[in-house]
């Protein structure tokens, strides 16, 4: 038995002879969070703010990494609280070595879990892995509070009054998690509002986007009859193939630009419908734009259900230019542009002129 003047337990209900060991375990539990903070700080200093809807593959921005740091800090806080509570209980209820083995095993599992989630989501997702880790820690913290508050602490000499379990969960889980979640929402919404659309990003990059000018001479050669052709297309491999087929076939039927007749055409696309489409087709579409300079990307949905709205925005864009005729079609429609050109030349400039229809499933073309 220790002398009467020497306390058996120190302030955190851990036997005095295990004080240094328990402090070491507390420090070790913070290593994953410290590692995450270091990595995200280094990444934040090495990347520029990303353009969320450009054609390039998704890359994390500096702000994304700063948000990831917040979740790292929250994970570190919850890990410390969880480890501290387990130390206070296991060093009392178990022999020293079994308690230490349990804590080291739990810490090792946690370290490997952190590495797994970080590698699973990848370097371009600094927020998601730590959000998942924090969700697991929040559940574990809640369970240990409810479990040990229900059982109580046997054989302890701590005289500090125990708080109500629900109150403790509210203070240690809900409030910190709610604060970090709110900050994350505000920061990501701000970043999203500051991101340019695909059309704006591409226009600033030198490729064809939304043209700010209203001078038709910049896109259509001077002629007696000026025609602007809009061809609706989409973010699919099949549409990519159809655009090339149109360039190689029907568009070659149109007469060359002259003093009588001049035309220009644009394939109209919306925003990439998904990250998968952006990452898989984005590089090909960028090469297509650089080679042909005939794509128009508008900041609208590219989904089939929103095709009417995409058509409206294309017509709205075309209204910035001066032309004699506007022809609108789709990339799955066969058009005899030589016949169209001849009809428009014979018609001449006209006011409030509309004409058009399409034959579907024409015999001989569908067989």
TrEMBL record:
An example Gene Ontology CC term for this record: Golgi membrane
Membrane topology (UniProt): Single-pass type II membrane protein
Primary localization: Golgi
Keyword terms of this UniProt record: Glycosyltransferase, Golgi apparatus, Membrane, Signal-anchor, Transferase, Transmembrane, Transmembrane helix
Organism superkingdom: Eukaryota
GO molecular function annotation: hexosyltransferase activity
Keyword Transmembrane helix attributed: yes
Keyword Transmembrane helix appears in the UniProt entry: yes
Membrane spanning stretches: 66-87, 99-121, 127-148, 168-189
Compartment list: Golgi apparatus membrane
A biological-process GO annotation: protein N-linked glycosylation
Family: Belongs to the glycosyltransferase 31 family.
Protein name (Swiss-Prot/TrEMBL): Hexosyltransferase
Organism listed in the record: Linnemannia exigua
Biological classification of the source: Eukaryota, Fungi, Fungi incertae sedis, Mucoromycota, Mortierellomycotina
């Amino acid at each position: 038995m220790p002398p009467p003047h020497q306390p058996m337990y120190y302030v955190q209900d851990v036997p005095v002879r295990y004080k240094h060991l328990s402090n070491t375990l507390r420090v070790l539990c913070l290593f994953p969070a410290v590692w995450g903070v270091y990595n995200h700080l280094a990444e934040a200093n090495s990347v520029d703010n990303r353009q969320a809807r450009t054609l390039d593959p998704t890359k994390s921005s500096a702000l994304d990494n700063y948000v990831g740091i917040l979740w790292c800090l929250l994970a570190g806080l919850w890990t410390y609280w969880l480890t501290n509570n387990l130390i206070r209980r296991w060093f009392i209820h178990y022999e020293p070595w079994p308690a230490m083995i349990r804590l080291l095993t739990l810490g090792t599992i946690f370290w490997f879990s952190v590495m797994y989630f970080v590698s699973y989501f990848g370097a371009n997702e600094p927020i998601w892995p730590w959000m998942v880790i924090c969700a697991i820690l929040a559940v574990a913290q809640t369970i240990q509070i409810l479990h040990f508050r229900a059982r109580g602490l046997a054989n302890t000499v701590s005289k500090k009054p125990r708080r109500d379990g629900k109150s403790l969960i509210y203070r240690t889980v809900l409030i910190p998690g709610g604060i970090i979640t709110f900050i994350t929402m505000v920061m990501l919404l701000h970043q999203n509002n500051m991101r340019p659309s695909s059309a704006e990003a591409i226009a600033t990059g030198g490729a064809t986007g939304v043209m700010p000018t209203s001078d038709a001479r910049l896109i259509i050669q001077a002629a007696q009859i000026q025609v602007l052709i809009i061809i609706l297309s989409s973010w699919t491999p099949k549409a990519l193939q159809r655009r090339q087929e149109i360039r190689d076939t029907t568009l070659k039927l149109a007469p060359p630009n002259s003093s009588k007749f001049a035309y220009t055409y644009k394939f109209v696309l919306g925003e990439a419908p998904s990250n998968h489409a952006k990452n898989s087709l984005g590089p090909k579409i960028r090469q297509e734009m650089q080679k042909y300079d005939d794509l128009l990307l508008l900041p609208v949905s590219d989904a089939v259900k929103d095709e009417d709205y995409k058509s409206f925005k294309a017509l709205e864009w075309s209204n910035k230019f001066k032309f004699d005729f506007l022809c609108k079609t789709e990339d799955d429609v066969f058009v005899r542009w030589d016949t169209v050109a001849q009809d428009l030349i014979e018609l001449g400039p006209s006011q409030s002129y509309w004409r058009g229809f399409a034959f579907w499933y024409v015999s001989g073309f569908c067989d």
